[in-house]
Amino acid sequence: MEEHVDVLIVGGSLVGLTTALLLRRHGVNALSVERHPSTAIHARAGHFQVRTMEILREAGLEERCREASLAMYHPRGGINSVESLAGKEHAVYIADLNEGIEGLTPTTRLFLNQDVLEPILREKALELGADLRNRTEVTSLRQDADGVTAALRDLDTGEERTVRAAYVVAADGNRSPTRRSLGIDMEGYGLLSRSITIYFRADVAPLLRDRNQGVIYVHNPKLRGFFRIDRTGGKGFLVINTAGEDVTQPEAVDVSGNLTPDQPEEFLRTAIGADIPVEILEVVHWIAEANNASRYQDGRIFLAGDAAHVVPPNGGFGGNTGVQDAHNIAWKLAAVLKGEAGPALLETYDAERRPAGQLTVEQAYTRYATRVVPERGTDDVKPFVPDIEIEIGQIARSSAVVSEPDDDGVQHKHPSEWRGLPGTRAPHVPLADGSTLDLFGHGFVLLTGPRGEGWSASGVPTHVVGSPEFPTAYGISPAGASLVRPDGIVAWRSVDGPRPEEVAGVMDRVRSISP
User: Fold this and answer.
1) How far from chain centre, in Å, is Cα 41?
2) 112 CB contacts (<8 Å, ≥6 apart)?
3) Distance of alpha carbon 439 from alpha carbon 57, whole angstroms
4) Which end of the chain has fewer CB atoms at under 10 Å, N or C?
5) Nearest Cα to 312, choosing from 233, 427, 226, 228?
6) What was the pLDDT predicted at 515?
7) 147: left (phi > 0), else alpha (psi -120 to 50), else beta?
8) C-alpha–C-alpha distance, residues 240 and 237, integer Å
9) Is 415 strand, coil or helix?
10) Secondary structure of 211-260 as H, E, C letters
11) What is the spatial distance between Cα 333 and Cα 349, in angstroms, rounded to a whole number?
12) Residues 341 and 332 sit within 8 Å (Cβ to Cβ)
């Protein structure tokens, strides 16, 4: 049997579900296939950053996610380092998860376990009409000039079928069979550790004292890792990256390979630092790496999420970067499939997302090397970049952005410094009923100042923003305009105006439509 879809998504976890949801918001026929029988069963990714929350807001899921988060974690949790939960505090890395973001975004960061978020994404994707199939694997992909032929197998019945897709998004994890079949290499820092995660129950609330339950690093002579504990103080998990006093030795970073049956409880008690009852629910073995794919596209197949970039959990960049991959590729696939853009638009995915992936790989490694194993050396560590610059302070450079002469080539800055430069995430300006960010998500829009009514003749949906903050935030005059892509990236701007006759040519250029 053969069926036809616009886009086949290989993988139905966090990034695959997000891709399916966003494609359906753009009216694209999407099929996601996932080998596992359900959504995530472990917490895994759990620190969701500003840009991810803005994307969830766009999808209508912000409040639901916030409610789920509040049931589990403190809304303004911090990140610190301790000898043990009962022992002394070494350092405070972040006192308040949302400190310093006021005025930059209409949303906030939050902690939310992946096993709670994925069902929310799945429900919304199904509501929008996505086809989501579990216990289904892709056994082969064969692409030609007109599309991709995928062989699928039902893992319960053994039934095989063929799917013909115009494009494929591979969100099939860090060991991505798709990436390997395409011969795409991973580049970076390589293997960091063979780690474990211990899921447990224990009443550690009295030991937390006045510390917010965010991320608590543990650094003592017996182990290095971190806790995440729910707001009751009765349940959580402990990640262990190294064991033993001398972390420079190879065996120190092979916690998984050297693990004995009694060690998980020993590790947990050492990290807690007090003699209290503990119950170990499960021990999960995994590999920490910091690598980026050498390319994110092979013809009609695109890599996203861990298939494209693999990072240690330090900094919480992995899942967030994957969600933003999905946000970038979804509107571009939709525009090409609907005939609104030329195929060359899809080449901008690699141009825009691979540098972003590289930055997060470097910064996750910086946080791992300096917070977990500084004794192993920091010669290859990149300078620390503040989270807010990684989240909403990066710039995209590609043919889908009309660059300006004063673009200094820097990849990231504090978001307030960009002033609406093309390639950056369009600034948040408060409106009476929300934010300028709430105007994005479906198609291109033109935002103009209070004297820019004449821009409406451009044919692009136009919003006159009367806020006195708007012109300064977007780097234009009150008569100027900013053209914003469906993913909220500024594509072009005219400092003065109105000159609506220019917009059609700019739109063709940005969408890779030949004159």
Assistant:
1) 19
2) 46, 48, 65, 68, 69, 72, 73
3) 12
4) C
5) 226
6) 61
7) left
8) 10
9) helix
10) CCCCEEEEEECCEEEEEEECCCCCEEEEEEEEECCCCCCHHHHECCCCCC
11) 10
12) yes
List the catalytic residues: 217
Show the tokens assigned to 325: 């991959």
Q: What are the residues facing 152 on neighbouring strands?
A: 138, 161
Beta bridge partners of 82: 89, 218
Would you state the pLDDT for residue 186? 97
How many other C-beta atoms can be found within 10 angstroms of the C-beta atom of residue 468?
A: 11
Instruction: Tell me the one-letter amino acid at 366.
Output: T
The pairing of strands 430-431 and 445-448 is: unpaired
Run means of pLDDT, 10 residues per run, the chain, 515 residues: 92 97 97 92 81 98 95 85 93 89 95 92 97 96 97 96 97 96 96 95 89 84 92 91 89 94 96 96 95 98 98 92 98 98 98 98 95 87 96 98 92 96 98 96 95 94 95 97 98 94 96 85
DSSP 432-445: TTEEGGGG-SSS-E
Number of neighbouring beta carbons within 10 Å of residue 185:
11
What is the pLDDT, as a whole number, of residue 181?
97
User: Could you give the domains of the chain?
Assistant: 2-75+107-186+291-376 (3.50.50.60), 190-290 (3.30.9.10), 393-510 (3.40.30.120)
Q: What angle do CA 492, 496, 500 make, to 5 degrees?
A: 65
- Indicate the DSSP class of residue 325: H
Q: Which H helix or E strand runs over 186?
A: strand 186-201
**Residue 14 in contact with residue 118, Cβ under 8 Å?**
yes
Residue 367 DSSP SS3: helix
**Structure confidence by residue, pLDDT tens digits, 449-496:** 999 989 999 999 999 999 999 999 999 999 999 999 999 999 999 999
* CA–CA gap between residue 363 and residue 488 (Å, rounded): 24
Residues 367 and 309: their CA atoms lie apart, in Å, by 16
**How many angstroms separate the first and last alpha carbons of the chain?**
41
Q: In this structure, what token pair is assigned to residue 101?
A: 């973001």
How many CB atoms are located within 10 Å of the residue 165 CB?
24
Determine how β-strand 136-143 pairs with β-strand 215-220: unpaired
With beta carbons less than 8 A apart as the criterion, state whether 211 and 340 touch.
no
Phi, psi of 454 (to 5 degrees): -65, -15
